[in-house]
Design a protein that fits this description.
- The chain starts with 17 loop residues before the first helix and ends in a 5-residue tail after the last helix.
- The protein has 3 domains: about 240 residues, no CATH class; about 130 residues, no CATH class; about 120 residues, 2-Layer Sandwich (GMP Synthetase, Chain A, domain 3), CATH 3.30.300.
- It is built from 19 helices and 19 strands.
- It is an alpha/beta fold.
């Protein structure tokens, strides 16, 4: 769902007449390209606006809460949950439970059957079609009110980068967005497709001259065939912005180098100056991608979802750096039609979990993220966990998925912990990680104590794998006291790293029908479903 958000970085309205703007902005145009010159004042305006609402986030959230309740009072959901009687957040919590898609599905079915005013006033503008782990295909409503905020945030994040850094060169060349097919189906009377496909329909005409790949290429369903056609269309272009999920961008880079015989992407695209990504943590891929590019490139991290654009990177003090100590955190999108709730992650599956809103969050706590939106999602658990790293302004990191954890022995290891255990050790040893996942080994076939098994595809393998694994284990123990207790108490033995053959994870994703697009390898599993497949790829 990520890549084509960036097709909407500019307003859908056409720009003013270019000749008039050239007369108005002669100095700017002489120092930069035409598009970057005309966009810069607007980018500065966007940055100032972000500063204002982020400094007043709690008040903005309170205002959004009241607006959402008022607008949905006469919907089927609002009447069933007595929205007309709700005045406070405490009353809302009593009336509306935390729910997942299965709980919401009866309302979705009514919308699909043609009813209006079900979850939100009127009919949805689109359904964003996503894959669920237990629900099969999910249909997430996008309303006339929510759709512009999805894509307006993508535009604002990129313009904010321009305003903060002065780099607008990417506006004056070609941009590529690695995304899903733009072909939509109709469910009931509602256009339906992947979020990235919906995005393609909303690209303003005057931006299409900068956009790659072509519509025809984007419609190709087979990822490997599509990638070859993307290389055909871009290899001789003046690419300046590349956007997508890191593992699939890596495949694009590798195909470019194989096609051209060049050593680095920078040799092919000398004006490449901005990488926009989201969906997964970039750090496991950073070393490999920078090696392919030929050095660091400025980047903008985002946190989009079908349910809403949750957060985005708003500061760029450590531009184009591999410094692992660079500050982290994405600005919570507190002024975009969503009212956020937060549930302690270890309570999310309880019948009546603790629920708080923005004013009560604490730094460092692990929260399940719950949304209420102007598309009609209410008390909706999107499945992600987040931690706040700042409250002035409110910035978060994505710490994992509520269903992606290991707690086979009560340790409750989360995605953030495994990444922060592996990556510093790899970076210190100049080891590049292609991909990895972790699963418990409860009944080791070789006998002895159980352990966590880390399946790792290395770009360059450690000379001493046992020592490497021991260092990773020490970092895991330092982060998770429950895991440390299990090791100290002799319940678990230290983790084991199982190295895998090259391209293992691509083969696995292809076997699952999830090669390319917006699909991601789970970092953690509490069972061995993935592990049992990967065992066949051991070195």
């Amino acid at each position: 769902m990520f890549g084509s958000y960036w097709l909407m970085i500019l307003d859908s309205k056409p720009p003013p007449d270019e000749e008039v703007l050239l007369l108005l902005l002669p100095n700017c145009v002489s120092n930069m390209g035409f598009r970057s010159a005309i966009i810069r004042p607007f980018a500065n305006h966007i940055a100032r606006s972000i500063d204002r609402w982020s400094a007043d986030a709690v008040a903005r959230q309170e205002k959004i809460f009241q607006h959402l309740i008022a607008r949905a009072t006469q919907t089927a959901f609002g009447r069933a949950h007595r929205f007309s009687d709700i005045r406070t957040y405490e009353e809302f919590k009593q009336a509306v439970p935390v729910r997942d898609y299965e709980d919401l599905k009866p309302y979705i079915e009514k919308i699909k059957a043609g009813e209006k005013d079900v979850l939100w006033s009127g009919r949805p503008a689109y359904f964003a079609k996503t894959s669920g782990t237990t629900s099969g295909v999910k249909y997430i409503p996008m309303s006339k009110e929510s759709t512009p905020l999805h894509f307006g945030t993508a535009r604002n994040a990129s313009f904010n980068y321009f305003a903060r850094t002065g780099n607008g060169r990417w506006l004056d060349g070609k941009m590529i967005f690695l995304s899903g097919s733009p072909e939509l189906e109709t469910v009931g009377d509602i256009p339906t497709g992947r979020l990235s496909g919906i995005s393609n329909h909303l690209v303003p005409g005057w931006l299409r001259t900068n956009q790659l790949p072509s519509w025809q290429t984007n419609c190709i369903e087979d990822w490997e065939e599509k990638l070859e056609r993307i290389v055909d269309e871009t290899v001789h272009a003046d690419m300046r912005l590349i956007s997508g999920i890191p593992p699939w961008v890596q495949m694009y880079y590798e195909r470019l180098l194989a096609r051209t015989g060049k050593s680095t992407v920078k040799e092919i695209f000398p004006n490449y100056s901005l990488f926009v990504y989201g969906g997964v943590n970039f750090e496991p891929y950073r070393a490999k991608l920078e090696a392919l590019v030929g050095g660091p490139v400025d980047s903008v991290e985002t946190y989009p979802a079908s349910e809403g654009f949750i957060a985005f990177q708003d500061t760029f003090a450590h531009r184009a750096t591999s410094d692992a100590s660079a500050p982290t955190g994405l600005l919570l999108n507190a002024d975009a039609g969503m009212f956020f709730e937060f549930v302690p992650a270890d309570e999310i599956f309880k019948e009546n979990p603790t629920r708080i809103w923005l004013k009560d969050v604490e730094i460092g706590n692990n929260y399940a993220l719950v949304l209420n939106t102007n598309a009609g999602l209410w008390g909706y658990n999107i499945g992600d966990t987040v931690q706040f790293v700042s409250k002035d302004p409110y910035r978060i990191i994505v710490s994992g998925r509520v269903k992606h954890f290991i707690s086979a022995f009560g340790e409750h290891v989360i995605g953030k912990e495994v990444e922060e255990a592996l990556l510093p050790v790899a970076n210190a040893a100049d080891i590049r990680i292609v991909e990895f996942t972790v699963a418990p080994q409860v009944n080791p076939p070789e006998g002895g104590l159980p352990y966590h098994e880390w399946f790792v595809e290395f770009d360059n393998q450690p000379a001493d794998l046992a020592a490497f694994a021991a260092d990773v284990d020490l970092r895991m123990r330092a982060q998770n006291i429950y895991y440390d207790d299990l090791i100290t108490g002799g319940v678990l033995r230290p983790l084991k790293i199982t190295p895998l053959r090259r391209d293992t994870f691509r083969a696995y994703m292809k076997s699952q029908g999830k090669l390319g697009g917006q699909n991601k390898v789970p970092r953690l599993a509490n069972d061995r479903k993935i592990a049992s497949v990967l065992e066949g790829f051991k070195l």
